[in-house]
Design goal:
single chain, alpha/beta, D-Maltodextrin-Binding Protein, domain 2, 2 domains, 9-stranded mixed sheet, two-stranded antiparallel ribbon, 10 helices
Protein backbone atom coordinates (compact mmCIF):
# COMPACT_ATOMS: atom_id res chain seq x y z
CA UNK A 1 0.00 0.00 0.00
CA UNK A 2 2.83 2.38 0.89
CA UNK A 3 4.54 1.61 -2.42
CA UNK A 4 1.43 2.60 -4.35
CA UNK A 5 1.20 5.84 -2.32
CA UNK A 6 4.80 6.70 -3.19
CA UNK A 7 4.08 6.03 -6.88
CA UNK A 8 1.14 8.44 -6.71
CA UNK A 9 3.33 11.16 -5.18
CA UNK A 10 5.91 10.69 -7.93
CA UNK A 11 3.41 10.83 -10.80
CA UNK A 12 1.17 13.60 -9.38
CA UNK A 13 3.21 16.49 -10.91
CA UNK A 14 3.02 14.84 -14.32
CA UNK A 15 -0.75 14.40 -13.99
CA UNK A 16 -1.10 18.09 -13.11
CA UNK A 17 0.93 19.13 -16.16
CA UNK A 18 -1.23 16.98 -18.42
CA UNK A 19 -4.38 18.56 -17.00
CA UNK A 20 -3.28 22.12 -17.81
CA UNK A 21 -4.98 23.69 -20.81
CA UNK A 22 -2.83 24.70 -23.82
CA UNK A 23 -3.47 28.37 -22.96
CA UNK A 24 -2.07 27.86 -19.45
CA UNK A 25 1.00 25.99 -20.70
CA UNK A 26 1.91 28.41 -23.49
CA UNK A 27 0.17 31.72 -22.86
CA UNK A 28 1.12 34.47 -25.29
CA UNK A 29 2.01 37.95 -24.08
CA UNK A 30 -0.81 40.45 -24.47
CA UNK A 31 -0.43 43.79 -26.18
CA UNK A 32 -3.06 46.42 -25.44
CA UNK A 33 -4.31 48.19 -28.56
CA UNK A 34 -6.25 51.46 -28.35
CA UNK A 35 -8.49 52.89 -31.04
CA UNK A 36 -10.72 55.98 -30.87
CA UNK A 37 -14.22 56.24 -32.35
CA UNK A 38 -15.19 54.05 -35.31
CA UNK A 39 -13.35 55.18 -38.43
CA UNK A 40 -14.38 52.92 -41.32
CA UNK A 41 -12.83 51.52 -43.41
CA UNK A 42 -9.69 51.77 -41.25
CA UNK A 43 -11.06 50.43 -37.93
CA UNK A 44 -14.62 49.99 -36.69
CA UNK A 45 -17.10 47.59 -35.06
CA UNK A 46 -19.62 45.86 -37.28
CA UNK A 47 -23.26 45.24 -36.31
CA UNK A 48 -22.17 42.22 -34.25
CA UNK A 49 -19.61 44.23 -32.29
CA UNK A 50 -16.68 42.62 -34.12
CA UNK A 51 -13.73 44.81 -34.98
CA UNK A 52 -12.88 45.15 -38.65
CA UNK A 53 -10.96 47.48 -40.97
CA UNK A 54 -7.75 47.61 -42.93
CA UNK A 55 -5.56 48.91 -40.08
CA UNK A 56 -7.13 46.44 -37.64
CA UNK A 57 -6.55 43.42 -39.89
CA UNK A 58 -2.96 44.42 -40.64
CA UNK A 59 -2.31 44.86 -36.90
CA UNK A 60 -3.81 41.46 -36.05
CA UNK A 61 -1.62 39.78 -38.66
CA UNK A 62 1.53 41.54 -37.47
CA UNK A 63 0.91 40.99 -33.75
CA UNK A 64 0.13 37.31 -34.30
CA UNK A 65 3.31 36.98 -36.35
CA UNK A 66 5.28 38.41 -33.43
CA UNK A 67 3.60 36.04 -30.97
CA UNK A 68 1.23 38.46 -29.24
CA UNK A 69 -2.42 38.16 -28.33
CA UNK A 70 -4.23 41.48 -28.58
CA UNK A 71 -6.59 43.22 -26.19
CA UNK A 72 -8.35 46.07 -28.00
CA UNK A 73 -10.04 48.98 -26.25
CA UNK A 74 -12.14 51.61 -28.01
CA UNK A 75 -12.09 55.10 -26.58
CA UNK A 76 -14.57 57.96 -27.11
CA UNK A 77 -12.09 60.26 -28.84
CA UNK A 78 -8.62 60.64 -30.31
CA UNK A 79 -7.69 63.00 -27.50
CA UNK A 80 -8.41 60.35 -24.83
CA UNK A 81 -6.58 57.68 -26.83
CA UNK A 82 -3.46 59.83 -27.08
CA UNK A 83 -3.63 60.48 -23.33
CA UNK A 84 -3.79 56.71 -22.69
CA UNK A 85 -0.69 56.17 -24.84
CA UNK A 86 1.11 58.99 -23.07
CA UNK A 87 0.37 57.57 -19.61
CA UNK A 88 1.07 53.97 -20.63
CA UNK A 89 -2.46 52.64 -20.02
CA UNK A 90 -2.46 51.43 -23.62
CA UNK A 91 0.51 50.00 -25.52
CA UNK A 92 -0.18 50.42 -29.21
CA UNK A 93 -2.09 52.58 -31.67
CA UNK A 94 -2.64 50.84 -35.01
CA UNK A 95 -3.59 53.87 -37.10
CA UNK A 96 -1.63 57.02 -36.39
CA UNK A 97 0.55 59.44 -38.32
CA UNK A 98 3.64 60.84 -36.63
CA UNK A 99 3.71 64.52 -35.72
CA UNK A 100 6.15 66.46 -33.55
CA UNK A 101 3.75 66.43 -30.61
CA UNK A 102 2.83 62.76 -30.95
CA UNK A 103 6.48 61.74 -31.19
CA UNK A 104 6.95 62.94 -27.62
CA UNK A 105 4.68 60.17 -26.33
CA UNK A 106 5.21 57.28 -28.79
CA UNK A 107 7.66 55.61 -31.17
CA UNK A 108 6.38 55.19 -34.73
CA UNK A 109 6.91 52.58 -37.39
CA UNK A 110 8.34 54.00 -40.62
CA UNK A 111 6.55 51.96 -43.29
CA UNK A 112 2.93 53.06 -43.90
CA UNK A 113 0.42 50.21 -44.18
CA UNK A 114 -2.15 52.45 -45.86
CA UNK A 115 -2.53 56.09 -46.91
CA UNK A 116 -5.36 58.27 -45.68
CA UNK A 117 -6.35 61.48 -47.45
CA UNK A 118 -8.00 64.42 -45.71
CA UNK A 119 -10.35 66.66 -47.70
CA UNK A 120 -12.36 69.79 -47.07
CA UNK A 121 -16.10 69.07 -46.73
CA UNK A 122 -18.82 71.67 -47.16
CA UNK A 123 -22.61 71.63 -47.26
CA UNK A 124 -24.17 70.74 -50.59
CA UNK A 125 -25.61 74.24 -50.98
CA UNK A 126 -22.22 75.91 -50.39
CA UNK A 127 -20.41 77.75 -53.17
CA UNK A 128 -17.01 77.50 -51.42
CA UNK A 129 -14.21 76.41 -53.73
CA UNK A 130 -10.68 75.27 -52.92
CA UNK A 131 -7.58 75.22 -55.09
CA UNK A 132 -5.07 74.36 -52.37
CA UNK A 133 -4.68 77.92 -51.12
CA UNK A 134 -5.99 78.34 -47.57
CA UNK A 135 -5.43 82.09 -47.65
CA UNK A 136 -8.19 82.34 -50.26
CA UNK A 137 -10.76 80.78 -47.89
CA UNK A 138 -9.51 82.31 -44.63
CA UNK A 139 -12.81 84.15 -44.07
CA UNK A 140 -14.67 80.88 -43.45
CA UNK A 141 -15.00 78.95 -40.18
CA UNK A 142 -13.41 75.47 -39.90
CA UNK A 143 -14.45 72.51 -37.73
CA UNK A 144 -11.45 70.19 -37.16
CA UNK A 145 -11.30 67.40 -34.54
CA UNK A 146 -9.24 67.51 -31.34
CA UNK A 147 -6.10 65.36 -31.61
CA UNK A 148 -6.23 64.83 -35.38
CA UNK A 149 -3.56 66.04 -37.76
CA UNK A 150 -4.43 67.49 -41.15
CA UNK A 151 -0.89 68.07 -42.33
CA UNK A 152 1.52 70.88 -41.48
CA UNK A 153 -0.07 73.45 -43.81
CA UNK A 154 -3.45 73.27 -42.08
CA UNK A 155 -2.19 72.50 -38.56
CA UNK A 156 0.08 75.56 -38.55
CA UNK A 157 -2.43 77.92 -40.18
CA UNK A 158 -3.08 80.09 -37.12
CA UNK A 159 -4.83 82.67 -39.32
CA UNK A 160 -7.75 80.25 -39.85
CA UNK A 161 -10.72 80.30 -37.48
CA UNK A 162 -10.89 76.75 -36.08
CA UNK A 163 -13.64 75.49 -33.79
CA UNK A 164 -12.49 72.07 -32.58
CA UNK A 165 -14.97 69.25 -31.92
CA UNK A 166 -14.61 65.90 -30.17
CA UNK A 167 -15.41 63.38 -32.89
CA UNK A 168 -16.37 62.88 -36.53
CA UNK A 169 -20.12 62.54 -36.04
CA UNK A 170 -20.20 65.75 -34.01
CA UNK A 171 -18.13 67.35 -36.76
CA UNK A 172 -20.55 66.46 -39.55
CA UNK A 173 -23.58 67.45 -37.47
CA UNK A 174 -21.95 70.79 -36.70
CA UNK A 175 -21.34 71.38 -40.38
CA UNK A 176 -24.94 70.53 -41.22
CA UNK A 177 -26.28 72.89 -38.54
CA UNK A 178 -24.10 75.79 -39.71
CA UNK A 179 -21.89 75.88 -36.63
CA UNK A 180 -19.01 76.28 -39.08
CA UNK A 181 -18.58 76.38 -42.83
CA UNK A 182 -15.94 73.74 -43.56
CA UNK A 183 -15.07 70.38 -42.02
CA UNK A 184 -11.93 68.34 -42.72
CA UNK A 185 -12.16 64.55 -42.89
CA UNK A 186 -11.40 61.39 -44.82
CA UNK A 187 -13.60 60.79 -47.92
CA UNK A 188 -14.15 57.07 -47.28
CA UNK A 189 -15.21 57.72 -43.71
CA UNK A 190 -17.25 60.74 -44.74
CA UNK A 191 -19.28 58.67 -47.21
CA UNK A 192 -20.04 55.93 -44.65
CA UNK A 193 -20.93 58.32 -41.83
CA UNK A 194 -23.07 60.68 -43.90
CA UNK A 195 -25.00 57.68 -45.25
CA UNK A 196 -25.52 56.25 -41.74
CA UNK A 197 -26.94 59.60 -40.62
CA UNK A 198 -29.31 59.67 -43.59
CA UNK A 199 -27.71 62.81 -45.03
CA UNK A 200 -25.55 61.35 -47.79
CA UNK A 201 -26.56 64.12 -50.20
CA UNK A 202 -26.17 66.99 -47.75
CA UNK A 203 -22.42 67.44 -48.17
CA UNK A 204 -19.90 68.07 -50.90
CA UNK A 205 -16.26 67.00 -51.03
CA UNK A 206 -13.67 69.51 -52.27
CA UNK A 207 -10.51 68.69 -54.21
CA UNK A 208 -7.53 68.69 -54.00
CA UNK A 209 -6.93 66.87 -50.69
CA UNK A 210 -5.61 68.94 -47.81
CA UNK A 211 -3.09 66.24 -46.95
CA UNK A 212 -2.37 62.57 -47.60
CA UNK A 213 -1.31 60.93 -44.37
CA UNK A 214 1.04 57.93 -44.25
CA UNK A 215 -0.70 55.71 -41.70
CA UNK A 216 1.66 53.92 -39.31
CA UNK A 217 1.62 52.28 -35.88
CA UNK A 218 2.70 53.89 -32.62
CA UNK A 219 4.08 52.27 -29.46
CA UNK A 220 3.73 54.10 -26.14
CA UNK A 221 7.10 55.20 -24.78
CA UNK A 222 5.90 53.87 -21.41
CA UNK A 223 5.76 50.30 -22.76
CA UNK A 224 8.67 48.16 -21.45
CA UNK A 225 10.99 47.55 -24.38
CA UNK A 226 9.11 50.07 -26.53
CA UNK A 227 12.00 50.67 -28.94
CA UNK A 228 12.52 46.95 -29.46
CA UNK A 229 8.81 46.45 -30.10
CA UNK A 230 8.55 49.24 -32.65
CA UNK A 231 11.62 47.86 -34.43
CA UNK A 232 9.98 44.43 -34.62
CA UNK A 233 6.70 45.93 -35.83
CA UNK A 234 8.51 47.90 -38.52
CA UNK A 235 10.34 44.80 -39.74
CA UNK A 236 7.10 42.82 -40.04
CA UNK A 237 5.09 45.65 -41.64
CA UNK A 238 7.82 46.27 -44.22
CA UNK A 239 7.74 42.57 -45.12
CA UNK A 240 3.94 42.20 -45.05
CA UNK A 241 3.20 45.07 -47.46
CA UNK A 242 4.96 43.05 -50.17
CA UNK A 243 2.71 40.01 -49.70
CA UNK A 244 -0.48 39.03 -51.52
CA UNK A 245 -2.31 38.71 -48.18
CA UNK A 246 -1.71 42.41 -47.57
CA UNK A 247 -3.11 43.34 -50.98
CA UNK A 248 -6.16 41.20 -50.27
CA UNK A 249 -6.84 43.22 -47.11
CA UNK A 250 -6.53 46.53 -48.99
CA UNK A 251 -8.84 45.43 -51.78
CA UNK A 252 -11.42 44.15 -49.29
CA UNK A 253 -11.76 47.69 -47.97
CA UNK A 254 -11.61 49.55 -51.27
CA UNK A 255 -7.91 50.36 -51.47
CA UNK A 256 -5.20 49.28 -53.89
CA UNK A 257 -1.50 49.21 -53.06
CA UNK A 258 -0.52 50.88 -56.32
CA UNK A 259 -2.94 53.81 -56.02
CA UNK A 260 -2.37 54.44 -52.34
CA UNK A 261 1.40 54.68 -52.58
CA UNK A 262 2.62 58.14 -53.65
Amino acid sequence: MLSRYRQLIVFLPFLLMLSLSPAMVAAKPIIKIAVPEDFPPFYYKDSNGTFKGVSYEVAVHICNKLGYDIEITQMPSMRLMLAALKDGYQDLSINLTATEARSELAYFTQTPHVFESQHLIVRADSDIQFDGNFQAIADYRFGPIFGWTYGPQFDRATYLEKEFVNDSVQQLKGLLSGRYDIAVNNPQYFAVTASSLGVANAFHLLDPPVFTLPVTMAVSKQYPGAEELVTALEREVAAFVREDAYRDILERYGFTAEKETP
